[in-house]
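Researcher: Structure for this, please.
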Amino acid sequence: MAHEKLQFQIPSKTKTWSMIFMVIGVIAALGGWFFDKTDHHQYWWANLLICGFFFFAISLGALFFYAVQYAAEVAWSAQFKRIFEAMFSYLPYGLGVIIVVLLAGQFHQHHLYHWMDPAVVDPNSPTYDSIIAGKMPFLSSWFFWLRVVIYAVTFLVFANLFRKWSLLEDESPSVELHLKQYRRSALFLVFFAVFSSTIAWDWLMSIDTHWYSTMYGWYIFSGMWVTTMIFATLFVIWLKNQGYLSKVNDSHIHDMGKWVFAVSMLWSYLWFCQYMLIWYSDIPEEVTYFKERYDHYMTGMWAIFFCNFAIPFYVLIARDAKRNTKFLTRVGVIIFITHFLDLYMAVIPGTIHGHLLWGIGEEVQHITFAWWFEIGMFLGFLGLFIMVVTRALSKARLISINHPYLSESENHHI
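Model: Predicted structure, token format:
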């Protein structure tokens, strides 16, 4: 380890560009609020939810993958486990944004979640909705917010414990610390198995309250997972280009590429199965989700599926492609952006419907700010995410030198 750079220093260019992106995001958010003429700034809040959930999902996916590595006693990833620790350090920020959106809905500052309006469950109200009323035992305010609190506490407690034990391991070698992470990782995965689906139901599927899908939680989870692996892969490649992680070899890159490829195929399978089963059965309460997207967003819907399936399938199926950092970088950037658009497609049609579509819609007078507002807010959150991750990475050794499987990871070859 004598020649290994153990302490990460944030490059000045990274700091500068992160700040530039964040400033762009603030300007876009302020401008978007001013120009958004939709009811209760519906479009503005929808984009805040999209950006907030997207980067929160990457962070939560990092916590999940970190736990999987410990629970499965994996050795090959020991060299760059600190990258996943840095990624899940963003969890408090992501949760904060989502809770702001949810609180704003609860106090009727927007109508992304129209089931939060008491009138829709009041039998004496002209807007009474019997379908939503039937779902209120699950969507009632007290139960909904109880779940939000449980999610936040669970994720933050486990993230803090994992980080604490990992840093303690740097100070003195301890098999007991490793075993603690092993045992707690297995416990966390039990919670995650349930919560990964229920957060998708609560925060995304309930936007289209009349609709439901038993595969939706897995579909959102797979998108979360593949985006996490893409960011982690691109980050490992970037660190190597910066002169760090010198003992990460082509076999490690190959394994990262296999994860990107495999989870992309899982997402594609779940996306198609959900669509195909709903299309084939043609049950009215199930097809409403896709009908909205067919009527106003068909081109975008199929383009997103094609990019997230066909590109990784045809480009990364070969062994050499998964070991080629240039291929992985280009494909990774494309999939990263199109998975953001996939989340966009999950939120916008149910909140804005046919009124706005990337500058083409029924209310043309509301479109002038759409492009720069959406891109600007995405860049702002990207800048914040990169800043939080790089700062967390710089606060500890880049490599956990006392990890019991470090030597095996350094000699990983396939």
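Researcher: Any notable elements?
Model: Residues 284-316 form the longest helix (33 residues). Residues 25-397 form one domain.
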